[in-house]
Amino acid sequence: MDNQKVGSNESIKFYHINKPYGFFSNFAPYEISLKGKIWPTTEHYFQAQKFVNTPHEEEVRQALTASEAAEIGRDRGRPLRRDWEVVKDDVMGEALYAKFTQHPDLKEKLLATGDVKLIEHTKNDRYWGDGGDGKGMNRLGELLMEIREQIRDQT
Ligand SMILES: Nc1nc(O)c(N)c(N[C@@H]2O[C@H](COP(=O)(O)O)[C@@H](O)[C@H]2O)n1
Question: Ligand 1: which residues within 6 Å by Cβ?
Fold first, then answer.
């Protein structure tokens, strides 16, 4: 199902990891290797970079689940790096590139989506997702599509 080609005028909406295309979620259990370390999910890496070069970076890496990593990362009791708003898209792109190049099965699934629009569909997030009403920025979907093009150009 996830590997099937879909028509180019369709879109793929994803969010829950146990639903179709759930592998696109940062919470999906695909570890990545970055900065000389293994990160259990892209969510772990993304959330940890909010605290780069502090002990909290490792604290997030060691979180037992992606949800726990997100909970720690969103806790403003821990100081957020000052340039986060400037760097967060690059951090996400770096994590996604690692995920889809380090897992050949995921790379194949990403490329199999052709030119279809990828959308993180959730009312919980208007920046990374579509806000549930389609008016959110869908930055996660946009970055996935950029990476798809980048990987396609390399093959
Ligand atoms: N599962 C889930 N729950 C939420 O409440 C969400 N906002 C998302 N979206 C994902 O959250 C990550 C970024 O979160 P913050 O920028 O730290 O709020 C990113 O992986 C989004 O795709 N997912």
Answer: 26-27, 43, 46, 70, 73-74, 120, 124-125, 128-129, 140
Any idea where the domains of the chain sit in the sequence? 11-154
Poorest-pLDDT segment among 7-21, 31-45, 135-149: 7-21
Q: What are the angstrom distances between the C-alpha of 142 and each of 6, 29, 97, 112?
A: 18, 21, 13, 16
What's the pLDDT score for residue 8? 55
Q: Write down the pTM of the prediction.
A: 0.94
Measured from the Cα of 43, ligand 1's closest atom is 20
Report, in this order, helix, strand and coil percent for the chain, each rounded to 5. 45, 10, 45
User: What is the dotted CATH code of the domain comprising 11-154?
Assistant: 1.10.357.40
